[in-house]
Amino acid sequence: MPENDVIAAGARTAIRTPRPADEEEFLARARASADLHHPWLSPPATPADFRAYLERLTEPQTEGFLVCERESGALAGFVNINAIVRRAFLSGALGYAAFVPYAGRGLMSEGIGLVVRHAFTHLGLHRLEINVQPGNAASIALAKRAGFRLEGFSPDYLFIGGAWRDHERWALTVEMTGIGGPPR
User: What is the model's pLDDT at position 110?
Assistant: First the structure.
C-alpha cells in the first residue's frame, strides 16, 4: 500500500480513503462476506452501489475509511462516520464491517481505534456513536473493546433488510479516550 494513501497506521492495519480503483476488491470481499453481514447490514454489492457509496463519501456529513492489512494492503473491512453534525454537537455515528477472511482477527478493533483517533483529533469531533442491533454479538463486542459505553435502546431505529430494526446505542466521547480533543 503506498504510504501517501495512508491516513493512519497501527501495528497490523492502516486506514485510508476508498477510491474508484478499490471497486473490484471491495465488491469481491463484500460478496464473500455476505453470510457474515446478513442480516445486520448490506454493503455495496454492485458497481453502481459502490459508485453511489463513493459519492456519499464526498458529502460533508460523511467520512469513509478502508481498513487495510498493513502487510498485504488487502481490504480487511471498512468504517464510515455517518451523520456528522458540527457546531455545538460535534458528533458522528460509526458504521463498519469486517471482510472474510479477516473477521475475528482483531484487525477491525485496531482499525476502529485508528478511525476514532482520527475523528477526535483531525476531524475535531467530540462524540461518536455505534448503533447495533441487539442480536449482533460480534459488533457489540467490538464496540466494548473500542471503549464505547452502552447508553440506551432505540426501538425501530434503522430500516435494514426491509424492516425497521431495534438498536442499542453505544457512545464514546473524547474525554473517555484521553486522546485530547477539539477546542471548546
Answer: 97
Nearest CA-CA partner of 79 in 115, 29, 44, 131 = 115
Mind listing the pLDDT tens digit for each residue in 13-55? 999 999 999 999 999 999 988 877 777 888 888 999 999 999 9
What predicted TM-score, i.e. pTM, was given to this entire model?
0.91
What is the 3-state secondary structure of the chain? CCHHHEEEECCCEEEECCCHHHHHHHHHHHHHCHHHHCCCCCCCCCHHHHHHHHHHCCCCCCEEEEEEECCCCCEEEEEEEEEEECCCCCEEEEEEEECCCCCCCCHHHHHHHHHHHHHHHCCCCCEEEEEECCCCHHHHHHHHHCCCEEEEEEEEEEEECCEEEEEEEEEEEHHHHCCCCCCC
